């Protein structure tokens, strides 16, 4: 057996106005203490079920901006994983980076440390869009970083893009997609801009300082993304993710397939399956509090919940429906002891009849129309 491991590094040089992740802008950060806290938490979890005796299949360094940490700190965390759990041969080890925070030496060091997949937050290649989004890099830095990543020995590269940005045109979006593909990543994530509560953009929206694009325009942009990505050789495998053959993000697939995963670091979430249900918990969000608790106790949980069968079944469905392949009806029945339609009553029948869900070859997935209304479909199951 094996599991996926998420390692959260919460520090950034600046906070993007759209970001609702647990990230903290700082000029300096307690890297040594934070790394020690991560390893203390890894040591404690290695003694507990369900992680004890299990190997790590994927590691994902997310943030924040993990590339701000020195290479020895990243290497130390990976070495601790190998020592405490063992890392499977061929494991996917990803790290998020901002294009302006890496150079050749840094990328070569990360590759030697064991990182084999790098993810750059490109977001756009248009200067005005990058400025609106509060990004601190420019398009040329993204191009340079991608080139240096390949020169450093990375074969796997993801680029993040954001669309439906106020002021963005269809021509702007096409140029972003084409420029990203020209850098030859094996994976492109393309997210529509959302205005999450607690962000600077949400506050500006409430004050009337930002006017989002019309939903009809956003839907047409999403359709354009799906079409152009296919033309460029990237297969859509998840609502916002596209990959060339073999380029799917195995770590994120573990989330979308409702598998167990361990999260360490400030604000990190974890989920452990138990039978048809399971347990979810999350850590202290404030980095200082996380460091204090993890170093003293080996854990820094600030909350948790037991997931009953009904909740687990709903999460299984809405997470799998994010995937283009959906889920196998037989797999749902094996896990929950009842058929999909028997479990949820009239809801699936109504969604099938409304053309939002389709059933083909023993699987259930979103229709093309369902993709554009995915949040509404998900709400039917949670």
Q: Roughly how many Å apart are the termini?
A: 29 Å
Mean pLDDT: 96
Order of strands side by side in the largest beta sheet? 9-10-8-7-6-5-4-1-11
Class by SSE composition? alpha/beta
| Tally of distinct domains | 2
In terms of per-residue confidence, which ranges show pLDDT below 50 for 5 or more consecutive residues?
A: none
Query: How many strands, what sense, and barrel or not for the largest sheet?
Result: 9 strands, mixed
Q: Quick one: overall form?
A: globular
How many H/I helices? 16
CATH superfamily of the largest domain: Aldolase class I
How large a portion of the residues is in β-strands, by DSSP E? 15-25%
Q: So what's the oligomer here? A: single chain
Please give the CATH architecture of the largest domain: Alpha-Beta Barrel
Q: Might you state the CATH topology name of the largest domain? A: TIM Barrel
């Amino acid at each position: 057996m094996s599991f996926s491991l998420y390692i959260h590094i919460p520090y950034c040089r600046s906070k993007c106005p759209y970001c609702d992740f647990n990230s903290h802008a700082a000029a300096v950060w307690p890297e040594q203490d934070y790394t020690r806290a991560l390893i203390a938490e890894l040591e404690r979890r290695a003694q507990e079920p369900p992680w004890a005796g299990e190997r790590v299949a994927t590691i994902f360094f997310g943030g924040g901006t993990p590339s701000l940490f020195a290479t020895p700190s990243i290497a130390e965390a990976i070495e601790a994983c190998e020592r405490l759990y063992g890392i499977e041969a061929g494991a996917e080890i990803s790290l998020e980076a901002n294009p302006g925070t890496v150079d050749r030496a840094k990328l070569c060091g990360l590759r030697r440390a064991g990182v084999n997949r790098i993810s750059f937050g490109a977001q756009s290649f248009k200067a005005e869009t990058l400025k609106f989004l509060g990004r601190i890099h420019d398009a040329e830095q993204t191009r340079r970083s991608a080139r240096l990543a390949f020169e450093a020995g990375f074969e796997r590269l993801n680029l993040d893009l954001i669309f439906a940005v106020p002021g963005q045109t269809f021509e702007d979006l096409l140029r972003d997609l084409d420029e990203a593909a020209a850098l030859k990543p094996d994976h492109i994530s393309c997210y529509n801009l959302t205005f999450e509560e607690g962000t600077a953009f949400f506050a500006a929206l409430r004050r009337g300082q930002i006017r989002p694009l019309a939903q009809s325009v956003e839907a047409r942009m999403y359709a354009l993304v799906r079409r152009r990505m296919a033309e460029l050789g990237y297969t859509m495998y998840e609502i916002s993710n596209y990959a060339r053959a073999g380029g799917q993000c195995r770590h994120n697939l573990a989330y979308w397939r409702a598998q167990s995963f361990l999260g360490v670091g400030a604000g990190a979430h974890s989920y452990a399956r138990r039978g048809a249900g399971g347990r979810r918990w999350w850590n202290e969000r404030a980095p200082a509090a996380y460091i204090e608790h993890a170093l003293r106790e080996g854990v820094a949980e600030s909350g948790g919940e037991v997931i009953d069968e009904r909740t687990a079944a709903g999460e299984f469905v809405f997470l799998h429906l994010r995937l283009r392949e959906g889920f196998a009806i037989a797999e749902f029945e094996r896990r929950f002891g009842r058929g999909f339609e028997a479990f949820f009553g009239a809801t699936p029948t109504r969604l099938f009849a409304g053309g939002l869900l389709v059933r083909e070859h023993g699987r259930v997935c979103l229709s093309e129309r369902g993709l554009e209304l995915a949040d509404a479909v998900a709400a039917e199951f949670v």
